[in-house]
Amino acid sequence: MSLSTEDTLSLTGQDARERLQREDELKLEPVRGAVLVVEDDPTHREILVEMLAGWGYEPLPVGSAEEAEFAVRNKRMDAAVIDVFLPGRSGTTLMSRLRERFPQAVLIGVSAMSDATMARKCKGLGADLFIGKPLSPEQLAKALQSRHTSWH
Fold it and tell me: Which of 38, 146, 36 is nearest to 86 (CA)?
């Protein structure tokens, strides 16, 4: 509900400030959590960032496994979307390292080469889920809302 100028003027100064403050509080939505986005393709990375931000997450975008480890060195991470095939160190190696460091985080492996073998490999290294590319927004949203479950 928006206040017109007349409405604002008709309220006392204190009442107007309190009402506007309540309206501002209603507009604020809490951040759902920090999501590490590890994608070497800048276009795909930007699409993921926009999608996650639109859903209320705090995206942490990087282009490699090495950048990912640096990005979360002093930062909490609630989930990660990790491309399996990255330049340099692989996404699967990164998943294993992130699982050790963030045992409760939801780790999601993604790849255009999506088959049962790749899904099993990712889950064996600590991923909670594996999603083939192109990513379905519905699948990703559902995956991010899931909880970590140990496969070991």
Answer: 38
pTM of the entire structure? 0.76
Helices 137-145/42-54 angle, 10° precision: 60
39: exposed, middle or buried (Cβ count in 10 Å: 0-12, 13-18, 19+): buried
Is the residue at 150 inside a domain? no
Per-residue pLDDT reduced to its tens digit, 72-95 = 999 989 999 999 999 999 999 999
CATH code at position 56: 3.40.50.2300
**Does the pLDDT at position 2 exceed 60?**
no
Q: Which domain holds residue 91?
A: 34-145
Calculate the CA dihedral of residues 107, 113, 114, 119 and round it to 10 degrees.
Answer: -50
Q: How many domains does the chain have?
A: 2
CA distance 118 to 107: 15
